[in-house]
Amino acid sequence: MQVVQPIRDTEKIEEIQQILKNQSERDWLLFTIGINSGLHLSDLLTLRVKDLKDKSKVTIKEEKTGKEKTFLINVQLKDWINEYVAYMDENNYLFPSQRTGKPIKRIRVYRILNEAAKQAGLNDIGTHTLRKTFGYHYYQKTRNISVLRELFNHSAPSVTLRYIGVNAGKS
């Protein structure tokens, strides 16, 4: 299994966002919500318009753990989401396949992220990169590994630090 990394450089994050925005609003928003929420990809893909429209706080039940997870949506992200969903039905999936209307598949997300990362000169990127990027930047801002460990449902802070690509004692 390939070990993927968080995107540590904020300029690279912006570059990938621009690449994605140029090709697809859906792909750009998926990436942007992913790096701002820390959700598992499986939970991101099952989001519907009604789950996020006009909300600043979202609670979902995690598919993987069955636990409830709450995340905040900042004002800018809320505006982007509302603009994106303006003409969508509230029961529509947020990230639908153009062919089926059902959520895009994990492998499709992997290909989208990898292609954008390649264009930005990055490798070691995968579907967990979104969650790891969220964790890495949250930790850099707050240094609060306890909250992050709980958010990610990890057994120990050392597991969380390893997951977000931070070596203990270094950043």
UniProtKB/TrEMBL annotation:
<dbReference type="Pfam" id="PF00589">
    <property type="entry name" value="Phage_integrase"/>
</dbReference>
<feature type="domain" description="Tyr recombinase">
    <location>
        <begin position="6"/>
        <end position="171"/>
    </location>
</feature>
<dbReference type="InterPro" id="IPR050090">
    <property type="entry name" value="Tyrosine_recombinase_XerCD"/>
</dbReference>
<keyword id="KW-0233">DNA recombination</keyword>
<protein>
    <submittedName>
        <fullName>Site-specific integrase</fullName>
    </submittedName>
</protein>
<dbReference type="InterPro" id="IPR013762">
    <property type="entry name" value="Integrase-like_cat_sf"/>
</dbReference>
<dbReference type="GO" id="GO:0006310">
    <property type="term" value="P:DNA recombination"/>
</dbReference>
<dbReference type="GO" id="GO:0003677">
    <property type="term" value="F:DNA binding"/>
</dbReference>
<dbReference type="GO" id="GO:0015074">
    <property type="term" value="P:DNA integration"/>
</dbReference>
<dbReference type="InterPro" id="IPR011010">
    <property type="entry name" value="DNA_brk_join_enz"/>
</dbReference>
<dbReference type="InterPro" id="IPR002104">
    <property type="entry name" value="Integrase_catalytic"/>
</dbReference>
